[in-house]
Design goal:
Number of helices: 4
Helix content: 25-40%
Distance between the termini: 23 Å
Order of helices and strands: HHEEHH
Length: 114
């Protein structure tokens, strides 16, 4: 929902126009000062009176046809480690004091959840 609630999506489109997106394995994109303009779906995406700004780190995992194919990739752990290193490096450059992480590659990209 972050792209629906903030100005992140148009900024990712600008990154794409500059050739920085889509992302490759091990690369993370730091987008500073993302403005969170709307509340979540439980609040019906109501506008936020005083929108906070956050730094967003975007990363992508390898896309697989299915989880079985992902599990057969002997380099999967190395690829995910490179992606996480990129995320942590970008987070460190952001100067943020807090970091919220989500799973990378589970779901649509068919990486194993563990």
């Amino acid at each position: 929902q972050l792209c629906h609630r903030s100005d992140l999506y148009p900024r990712l489109k600008l990154a794409k126009a500059r050739g920085a997106y889509p992302l490759h394995n091990g690369v993370a994109l730091l987008t500073p000062r993302v403005c969170l303009r709307r509340r979540d779906s439980a609040a019906f995406f109501a506008p936020v009176a005083e929108p906070p700004q956050l730094a967003v780190v975007t990363a992508a995992a390898q896309r697989y046809k299915n989880e079985l194919v992902a599990r057969r990739d002997g380099a999967l752990s190395r690829k995910l480690e490179a992606t996480w290193r990129g995320v942590l490096e970008a987070a460190g450059r952001s100067g943020a004091h807090h970091l919220v992480l989500s799973a990378i590659g589970c779901g649509a990209f068919s990486n194993p959840p563990e």
